[in-house]
Amino acid sequence: MSDEIMPFWTGDYYNEGSGRDGIFDKLKEECGVFGVFGHPEAASISYYGLHALQHRGEESAGLCVANGTEFNYHREMGLVKEVFDRDKLSSLQGDRSIGHVRYSTSGDSRVTNAQPLIFKYRDGDLAVATNGNIVNAPKIRRELEQSGSIFQTTSDTEVIAHLIARSSKDFVEAAKDALHQLVGGFAFLLMTNDKLLVASDPNGLRPISMARLGDAYLFSSETCAFEVVGAEIIRDIRPGELLVLDANGLREDRYAEPQRKALCAMEYIYFARPDSDLNGSNLHSARKRMGQVMAQESFVNADVVTGVPDSSISAAIGYAEQTGIPYELGLIKNKYTGRTFIQPSQELRELGVKMKLSAVRRVVEGKRVVMIDDSIVRGTTSRRIVNLLREAGATEVHVRITSPPFKNPCFYGIDTPDRGELIASSRSIEEIRQEINADSLEFLSADGLIQAVGGDNKDDYKGGMCMACFDNDYPTRTDFNGEEKYGCTS
Ligand code: SF4
Prior knowledge:
This protein is α+β, with helices and mostly antiparallel strands. The strands form six sheets. Strands 3-2-4-1-10-9-11 form a seven-stranded antiparallel β-sheet. Strand 7 and strand 8 (196-200) form a beta hairpin. Helix 10 packs across helix 11 and helix 10 (283-297) packs antiparallel against helix 17. The site of iron/sulfur cluster (SF4) has 12 residues, from helix 9 and helix 18.
């Protein structure tokens, strides 16, 4: 495919920089899923859908298509545009499909773990794609292995296939029983030769939405993928809900009672594309409001406001609108650096930063700059960007972060460093300010974040968000005999 349809949001800066070359310490997205039911061009639609979700996982991509009698599938390491070409797509004939883009923690990065995972069981073929993390998967896996199961992958997703295969009930009931045993944050697409199932965890931690395209139903981790293919958004899948699609159409069911709604706050703050909607709210607008609330909470006198591209631009516009300080493009992201091999010397690391991000000297020279960013993980990224601005002549750099301090690891599919590496877990805001070399540093308050995402319903606990990485209040159990696990292992 041509570069023209490459989404600007594709994360060469965020994803590559966040772990592979050690330059940037941004959090890693988890995965993205895309499903089609009832369209003769299921493979092509999925291709465009997965392309729009590329920022959620750049390590592997896969697509499984069903035509009623058999599965056709293709999975490989690489970007969507590298994994699929015209010939591969035309070999994937059928009117329903599930697709996946994946990011994994290192060591888990192998093609056998690329999704959708495909299984043969007594009733036929089964394909599984998921976004998120099953917290109790190691425990379930150990129990299954002790009773004879042989696993093909190291993916936590595989446990659901074993649980379904062991059940004597029909497929839908078996899937409900299996889902009921899982603890964590997940959105599942399960496909057999005649059915497509869609499920969300009981807290709705990971996003998944539904749309219509003609008579077909589409499902996606983010609504931006619907826009690309011209589909009409219907709604988000509800916590604990199970949708069943087959020859009889769509049936709304549930496998678990909904628990308190706890959609990942980092989806609002950073992960999801600004042209996606979450909970009926557009992300660009929500991030602008974060900037506006941030300005109300921590105004500072300055000459220009700039946002760290791309995820903080919306919030920077909001901060500028609220304060009257002009918004400027003080930082530019180079989208075409590709993967860089950076020697482990400080000098070359700094060079690597400049390859990926530049300060615009004519904008910031001699100016007091407010730099808006979405989060601070280890602090190394913020320090490097502050230094870029200073080297370009900024006289003051005031850092404003549109999330509360990130203090705790995630158990639900976001790859976070150990608690000890999270700078906010052990340092005061003043200590962090000194480490990142800023003139001032402020974080958005938890209440400010809830206000910005539109959590004005008083019954909507914490705005319907999980905020555990800020406040240590995890919406599910996380301790399973010391086998707690975090990071995207799906
Ligand atoms: S702990 Fe943080 S990153 Fe993980 S799901 Fe909750 S809000 Fe998202």
